[in-house]
Amino acid sequence: MSTxxxxxxxxxxxxxxxxxxxxxxxxxSERGLEPLLGASRxxxxxxxxxxxxxxxxxxxxRGWRVTPIxxxxxxxxxxxxxxxxxxxxxxxxxxxxxxxxxxxxxxxRAHPDHDDEETGLRDFSDFHLALVRLSGNPFLADxxxxxLTRLSRTRWLGVRTARSRSGxxxxxxxxxxxxxxxxxxxxxARIGGISQFLKLASxxxxxxxDLAPHFAMELHLHLAAAYPIADPWVExxxxxxxxxxxxxxxxxxxxxxxxxxxxxxxxxxxxxxWTVASQEFxx
Length: 283
Fold this sequence. Notes:
The protein is mostly helical. It is about 55% helix and about 5% strand.
């Protein structure tokens, strides 16, 4: 099989995993994947090995399986990515010129007439990598590339609808246009829980900063609603919808608090099937 055939099998298998056609944890075999990928055994094996390097497949005895989504790992990689991007943005603000920023803005507008999941995922990766490269630090760029690879499946969920892809593009444009912002973006799960979040919210209030909690609005929406200064910003990730039986209500540019008990959400059976409590990786 030619290299072109191997690339085709790899691309089809990668799409099947990212789009959840092959669900996390599903056992697969080289021979069983041949009809799905329209390829013989050798290119299928090469595709599985390439995707193993991306963390999307793993060996299981003599066979293979789609790597389960480990929420602990996802959160750790997101923390790593956030640290990289924060450092890169500070350096880019000092080092990037007007032409480079104009090129970044053009990248944020890429492919407005070719709107699909694969293009959206590629465009958003290109934007964040280009942003980090403006720092002039190749180690930060390498770190971001690795983080985006490890998060490829969750990022695919983030571009699965035209609305979500449009929203991310708009956010990228605002980031470039603003240059900087006096906004505090705490994440309760990363800073020690609700008590620490409330302390940071008090800090923001004293300094008249805008509040924009980061990620997991199922928790942060309730905390943001208690912030006394104007209306806090909230993020909407519809790619989290498969994790819960209920949906966050958005209407007229606002997110509405649920009147259900507790946080107002319950974990879906589908999410339970996708996740594992822990995962062991061998070097």
